Each structure stands twice: as C-alpha cells, then as structure tokens.
Amino acid sequence: MGMGTGASGKSRMALSEINVTPLVDVMLVLLIMFMVTAPLMQQGLEVEVPKTSASGVEPQEDPFRLVITADKRILAAKQPIKVNDLKNKLKAIFEKRKSKQIYIEADARVDYGFVAEVMAEIRAAEIYSIGLITQPKASP
Fold first, then answer.
1. What is the DSSP letter of 78?
2. pLDDT of residue 44
C-alpha cells in the first residue's frame, strides 16, 4: 500500500505543473507582430513623391490650394499672401471649412527650405493634413 500512495503522489505532482510552451509561443507571435507594425505607426507629413504613377485620392469638397511660384510668391485663390501673414489668414479661412486639408502646389525650382517654412506656418495655423500636388510620371 505504501507503494501505491507513492505512485499516486507522483502523478498528482505531474498534473499540477504548468506547461509554459503555449504561453511562450503566443508571446513570441505577439512580439513579432509588434516589431513588424511599430515602424508603420510613425507619424509624418503626407507627402507625395513628384512624378508618380499612382492615382490620387478624390477629395470630398473643393480642395484648398496654396500655390508657391518660382519667385517664392505665395498665392491663395490667386491672391498674394506674405509668409508672415500666412498663419493668421489660414486660420480665418479654415475656421468655417469642414475639411482641414490643404494642398501645396509648388514650382519645382523653389527651394525645399522655403516650402518647409510654408509648411511650418500651415501647421502653426493648426492644419495638419498637408499634401503636395505633383505631375503624373510620363509613361515610357
């Protein structure tokens, strides 16, 4: 009888141990998923690369275009705006618009630094959806 209880005591101990292999498998899968999706969650400007072959998204209302000419003049609805006045004028314009989205149509000869300065003024006006208008790539 002593041997019988000893054997049953061993089997009870084996049943009470937790198998951690499935837990480790699930954790590794979750880790891999987070590692793959983390770079996709970075924030940045919505910018189209010039001369693309991809089609654009149709806006739901008339898009607001800001034109930057080769001589660094800024035009909104064909009206000139100075860089210093841009923030206040955009706040007034976008106060009543549903879509807080703006498109920049900059000449290819304009310095990148000037376009970045204009984009900073747009963000200062609390407009965070900014797109760059580009021409479609010529098919070979």
1. T
2. 43
